[in-house]
Amino acid sequence: MLAKIIVVMSPKGGVGKTTTAVNIATAISNLNKKTLLIDANLETPHVAIYYGFVGFKYSLEDVLNKKTKIEEAIYTGDNTNFHLLPSRVIKSDRDNSVHKLININIYLEQLRDKYDFIIIDSKPSYDIDFIKLIKEANSLIISNPDITSIIEAKKLKEELDEAGIKIIGLVVNKVNNRIKEQMTENEIKDITKINNIWKIREDHGVYNALRQGIPMVLSSKKSIAAKDIINISRQIIKI
Ligand SMILES: Nc1ncnc2c1ncn2[C@@H]1O[C@H](COP(=O)(O)OP(=O)(O)OP(=O)(O)O)[C@@H](O)[C@H]1O
Ligand SMILES: [Mg+2]
């Protein structure tokens, strides 16, 4: 079986792509699926920080710049089901957008038979040039429960539909049931026309996990956001 590739995307920044990508990838690997998490946000790459992993030698950029072989830039820890291909945390040149990633599919094709899932974190973007580079990529859209974020998710959904790219679902992150003014699931469905909507609740445990450098689904399994993410991960592996 070839890996299912899921690109975590949103037009708006700061909605929770990295939090979702990191925790879903970790949770899926804990469900006994061999998982590779790739940080393809070359502008603000933060995935490694979520694992407290900063002293790595090679990154995705080194692979793309042909400085090293891809195997050298893939790291693993105690959980052998989980592999990470990080990007550099500190960058001097920001001229990298999509053309640096132009050959990513060549690398992904080499890896697809080694994993069950390849989860890719991406930079916030209104265009779909990046995901279009990847053969048989699925998209997971992230938004927040406010109208601006939902409208942008709807626009992205329409573009993906037009390009024939499968959307596995919309994750509405930072849901707070005490804030009545947040958009409801039905309102979000009506606007976006995405049927598969998942919620991740707002949870301060996210910050705790970041401080510890251990993803929330491992460091605070009982926190509400971790529970939501584990539940989403269980559903994703069945799709
Ligand atoms: N469910 C949540 N509850 C509380 N805080 C959250 C939640 N999800 C994410 N956050 C916080 O929101 C901020 C942005 O999250 P994150 O970095 O995952 O967003 P992003 O979409 O990847 O951002 P960027 O567009 O910069 O890549 C972080 O400080 C994160 O800790
Ligand atoms: Mg991010």
Describe the SSE topology:
Blueprint lengths: L3 E6 L7 H14 L4 E5 L7 H4 L9 H5 L10 E2 L5 E4 L11 H4 L3 H8 L5 E5 L7 H4 L4 E7 L3 H16 L3 E10 L9 H8 L4 E5 L3 H8 L3 H4 L4 H13 L3
Parallel strand pairs: 1-5, 1-6, 2-4, 2-5, 6-7, 7-8
Antiparallel strand pairs: 3-4
Helix pairs in contact: 1-11
Describe this structure in words.
This protein has about 240 residues and is α/β, with parallel strands linked by helices. It has a single domain (about 5-235), classed as 3-Layer(aba) Sandwich (Rossmann fold), CATH 3.40.50. About 35% of the residues lie in helices and about 20% in strands. Bound molecules: adenosine-5'-triphosphate and magnesium ion. Magnesium ion binds near residues 17, 46 and 121.
Note the beta-strand portion.
15-25%
* Straight-line distance between termini: 14 Å
Under CATH, the topology is which?
A: Rossmann fold
Proportion of residues in helical segments: 25-40%
Spatial order of strands in the largest sheet: 3-4-2-5-1-6-7-8
Compressed to H and E, one letter per element, the order equals EHEHHEEHHEHEHEHEHHH
Bound molecules: adenosine-5'-triphosphate, magnesium ion
